[in-house]
Amino acid sequence: MPRLICLDGDSAGHETTANMLTWTFYELARPENASVLRTLQEEIDREIFSSSDKNTRVQIGPDSAQQLARCTYMDAVCSESLRRHPVIPGIGRAAGQPVTIAGRRFPKGISESTLMAEH
Ligand code: HEM
């Protein structure tokens, strides 16, 4: 149980998110990405802040998920950040039993790894 808590606290969702955000802010701070930052800021102003409360804090509320879902440019920025700087560049698996994939048979124990740019 303590090991599970450790995994949850340190890996699942915590380090990954922090790492991804760090790279994203790094990319947004680069002079060549100034127009990306501007477009993103405009989307956030439009979709998250209403014009009347631009200077107030964002409140997490019932509408938050819908507001974020409308931020398609932010979604693209995050995807591109993960593509350029994959937080988890690959994952590995080993077959627990013989398996047939696309007509090919693989023995128990065979391992594979997948390189990935994002998930
Ligand atoms: C940018 C952020 C994230 C990245 C890059 C990321 C990446 C990944 C990857 C590659 C896996 C598959 C690992 C494997 O199958 O071996 C995974 C699984 C998982 N992630 Fe994330 N993750 C992120 C954010 C989060 C967040 C925020 C949470 C929780 C709030 C989370 C919870 C989990 C859990 C529970 C699994 C296991 C799912 C399963 O067993 O099927 N992740 N993540």
Describe this structure in words.
- Helix 1 (2-29) packs across helix 4.
- This protein has four helices and four strands, in the order H-H-H-H-E-E-E-E.
- It has helices at 2-29, 34-47, 64-69, 72-84, and strands spanning 90-94, 99-101, 104-106, 111-115.
- It has two domains: 2-87, no CATH class; 88-119, no CATH class.
- Strand 2 and strand 3 form a beta hairpin.
- Strands 1-4 form a two-stranded antiparallel sheet. The chain has a two-stranded antiparallel sheet with strand order 2-3.
- The two termini are 27 Å apart.
- It is α+β, with helices and mostly antiparallel strands.
- It binds protoporphyrin IX containing FE.
- Residues 12-13, 16-17, 20, 87-88, 91, 119 line the site of protoporphyrin IX containing FE.
Q: Which ligands occur here?
A: protoporphyrin IX containing FE
Classify the secondary structure makeup into a structural class. Answer: alpha+beta
- Give the amount of beta strand, in percent: 5-15%
What is the helix content?
Answer: 40-55%
C-alpha end-to-end distance: 27 Å
Structure summarized in a few sentences:
The protein has 119 residues and is α+β, with helices and mostly antiparallel strands. It folds into 2 domains: 2-87, no CATH class; 88-119, no CATH class.
Topology:
Layout: H1 2-29, H2 34-47, H3 64-69, H4 72-84, E1 90-94, E2 99-101, E3 104-106, E4 111-115
Antiparallel strand pairs: 1-4, 2-3
Helix pairs in contact: 1-4
Residues 12-13, 16-17, 20, 87-88, 91, 119 line the site of protoporphyrin IX containing FE.
